[in-house]
Amino acid sequence: MENPLLLFPQLNISASKDKSYYKVMKSTIKEEPHKASKPGSVSPEEAVKWGESFDKLLSEKAGLDAFTKFLKTEFSEENIEFWIACEDYKKSKTAHELLPKAKTIYETFIQKDAPKEVNLDFQTKEVTSQNIEKPIITTFDAAQNTVYRLMEQDSYPRFLRSDPYLNLVKGRNPSRPTLRRRSRSFTVNDFQGVRPDFTVWSDTGETMAWSESMDTLLANKGGLEAFRTFLKSEFSEENVEFWLACEDFKKTKSSTKIASKAQKIYSDFIQADAPKEINIDFHTKTHISQNLSEPTLSCFDDAQRLIYSLMAKDSFPRFLRSEEYKELVKKQQNGNQKRWLPFL
């Protein structure tokens, strides 16, 4: 497989700008000549504009750089790198350019166990795979749209709540984070300032089983608490809290309590500017609002499925890739080995 940095040099965000292979995507990223994109040079006015829309954030070079750094702390920079690669791919002018770029994108981001595999549904992945031998400009459009929506609905709101972004809005220059590189992504959650501590659950004897499925993780008390701690470090604990609230709601037997619980869930998680507002589509939100006057035990089912799917496809894989989870598994494995081989 060809090195993706040779075909897509803009993915090498650590490269110096004076190197010949560093290219800024002019049609995608606007960099005004009087505004440098160096760290600390973003004005509060610029940063505030990033909050207007996800498109606005991605259209500014400084905004794209800040968002990419944020995704690295969440173990999900593959999403923005895939989006950038697709934007570059669509600028190809000849069929000769399309094929090598298409194969590199497919091998880097799409195929099973790709080094930077993005989360796509089966149908989108199948359609993309079938068209890879004779690619056209729109070959990756469906996949790119899927990843774009995932970032817009999940990562972007967390970015806007993160301390580095809020510091930029307030005119504070965040200190340069200390990052440690691993094979796939950065491992330090420098946006929270405190790494999640899972060691309190290290003696459960069930840590490795959590990786079997998100159902297994959520069904285990220690697993659920570890996952909640991880989501807090990602500014997205509202997702699992909403899921838990829905699970509790479905156990309600009294019609009076159903109404009061439904109203509380709506006020806490669904309505505009709710304190723990979750990201769901307009249709689902409207459907819930219309049924709130006479709620049933199934009134939040669609929203709960959406949030579960979001966690399963996005947060759960990052949790399993986190250094904290891996360290916990390693400790358990070492403990099991010493139990069976006490002479070690």
List the helices and strands and how they pair.
Blueprint: H1 4-7, H2 44-50, H3 54-59, H4 61-73, H5 77-89, H6 95-110, H7 122-130, H8 141-161, H9 163-169, H10 214-219, H11 221-233, H12 237-249, H13 255-270, H14 282-291, H15 301-321, H16 323-340
Helix pairs in contact: 4-5, 5-6, 5-8, 11-12, 12-13, 12-15
Domain RGS: 53-169, 213-329
InterPro entries: RGS, RGS_sf, RGS_subdom1/3, RGS_subdomain_2
Pfam family, one: RGS
Features:
344 residues, mainly alpha, Regulator of G-protein Signalling 4, domain 2, 2 domains, disordered C terminus
Strand count, sense and closure of the main sheet?
none
Percent in helix: 55-70%
What is the fourth-level CATH superfamily of the largest domain? Answer: Regulator of G-protein Signalling 4, domain 2
The CATH architecture assignment of the largest domain turns out to be Orthogonal Bundle
User: Got a strand count?
Assistant: 0
Give me the Rg, rounded: 22 Å
Q: What's the average pLDDT?
A: 79
Strand content: under 5%
Element pattern in H and E:
HHHHHHHHHHHHHHHH
Give the helix/strand class: mainly alpha
Can you tell me the CATH topology of the largest domain? Answer: Regulator of G-protein Signalling 4, domain 2
Shape descriptor reads globular
Number of helices: 16
Top CATH class of the largest domain: Mainly Alpha
**What distance separates the N and C termini?**
43 Å
What is the count of structural domains?
2
Low-confidence stretches: 12-37, 175-195, 200-204, 339-344
